[in-house]
Design goal:
By secondary structure, the protein is of the alpha+beta class. The protein is 35% helix and 18% strand. The protein contains 20 helices and 28 strands. The strands form 9 sheets. It has a 6-stranded antiparallel sheet, with no helix packed on it. A hairpin with a 2-residue loop joins strand 7 (106-112) and strand 8 (115-119). Helix 4 (151-161) crosses helix 6. The radius of gyration is 34 Å and the shape is globular.
Amino acid sequence: MIVQAVPDQTAVYYSCTHRTSTLYFGKLSKWSMNEPRRICNMQKRTEVISDNQFKPSCHIVNGDCLNQSACNVGYKVQTFENLTWQRSLRNSPSKGKPCTWRRETVTNFYTIKGNCVRQMRNPEIVLNSLSMHGQQDDYKFKRLYRILFNEKMYHVAYEKIATKLGNMTADCKGDTVDGMSIENIEKLINSLKDESYQPRPSRRVYIPKKNGKMRPLGIPSFYDKLLQEVIRMILEAIYEPRFSKHSHGFRPKRSCHTALAEIEKTFCGVKWFVEGDIKGFFDNIDHNVLIETLSERIEDCRFLRLIRKFLNAGYVEDWKFHNTYSGTPQGGIISPILANIYLDKLDRHMAEFESQFNKGKGRKRNQENQSLQYKRRWLKHRLSKVSDGNERKEIIKALKENQRQNLLIPSGDEMDADYKRIHYVRYADDFLIGIIGSKADATKLKQEITEFLGNKMKLELSAEKTLITHSEERAKFLGYEICIQKSNQTVRHKNGSLCRAHNKRVRLLIGRDVIKKKLLSLNAIEIKIHNGKEQWKAKSRVGLTTLDDLEILRKFSSEVRGLYNYYALAQNACTVSTFDWMMKCSMYKTFAHKYRTKTSAIRRKYFKDGVFTVSFKAKNGQIREAKFYNDGFKRKKADSNGMIDNSPSHMTYKTTTSLIDRLAARRCELCGAEENLVMHHVRKLGELKGKAPWEKLMIARQRKTIALCSKCHRNIHLGNV
């Protein structure tokens, strides 16, 4: 049963009760914001859960007070020696029954060397619990900040992000993931407990965009990334169950292909497209609006204050610090989930608008088509009554002509004003809307979205990219060109009747300039004008001539495969063969440039069974072959989840020894010393020369990490190993 620890006359501790929104301490008045730390340090509330009163298992309830570190201090065992036991006021009303409420607020403690040590909950259980409550619209999350005290959450986060190459990129102070240790996680948690944690400003760099402009990218410190990953897991568990099914950006098991598959399935028969793009979305997110949106479901001030710290962290550019008054840092781990939470308001607004806009259960019958149907019935009835051969031929001829005319006329009235539909799909800050209605409806919808974004979300639509396009013309979305096909081509149905199966269907196409721009960006062709026409001529990629044959082959082959995998949904996916041919010619010239010979000699040397092949020696001494991509460019159809672009798993085995387990072993993997360890990281194994003992060990294990003692780690960076 559950009992409450009540001090006797010799004890100095009193009993206090923690509540969700306010705190009451024994017989004192309501908790005061002016004296939170003094009260929390003097008074603690303790519970004991036990089936045996002589061996109680002690639990301390975490409250919502600001001085969380004081409330989480573990008592010495002798603190409980002189306690008398009473039944807790928070027990079940019926005698003998266990307490059935607020179990999630209890933190388990166990005894090690005379001290009560806190036992952490399994992260999977925590996230599943949050996800279960996240399915309820009216549920409020009130104690999220204390989840950040769970070391196991950081262990899971570290396993997820440790292998990413970006972690070896230095932040504003030059630090990377190298030197990660369990002690650093404990320091991070302690700074969160007393709320002294302050994220570092990110280092700003710029990467090129497709339109020639530069995109700002922030590089935060690794420990900021680690904490952001924990926050991301919490927010994803809360919000993912309630996100709109029409949102596909930065979500698990969703991609560009799932968005395109939904368009192909649901946009059939639309009349107008509204192409939407939010101007400078990630740089213009209003911090106050974002915090207000989060506070609708999260009632934890400390958790919200932590997120605001990340938003206001600022950035360093050219060694100058800049404040951030709006936007989320592009490059931060929590930026995508915060962007989806912010734009979820737009998704819900579009759902409301859709329910008001949609009208009618179906289109009215086309009068011309209906009259042809009546005539067809009459001709069939007449054919059944006539026995003369010549007259039957005339009736059959009339039936065929009736069927031909009927196929050219839609069964429903396409100009029916009483039938309207709207379809909406969003990927990050880009969205596409299909409308069955008039152009005036499309213009009204565009104005409605503009006003909603401006008034409610403090955002602005891009005038250049937000367009109203007729469905027979091509609208651009996620690199594809989308239109509605108008076709009189007939297909025989299973029941034997003819129908225009391709009419009013969605067509996903590769743009006219996609292949040209891709080849130019790779510097694989040069364009010459001859008689007013463009002529593409492949050229050598000089920067690749320093690589070996296998690396050159894999470079070209992966670029061809990557473009095809993304545009595999397009109906004209076969046009990627043009890109394939130009890349092959460029590869031949690159090899010829490397060996100072002709492309014809390169073909004779490397072609085997009609495929460009490079032989190489594997580590086990066997001679193997690598071939250029030769699997064709047939169009693929998305499955039920639209996941056709999943990369295969290249792991041949999985080990149960995680990075945290190796650090917790407290045994240096290089010298064998037993002490607190740090994890040494390298960007790529290929960068190791294999001369030093630690390099040989990492290459032999095929690992980019090695757990070292502080002395070995310091000597590696000093070059003394």
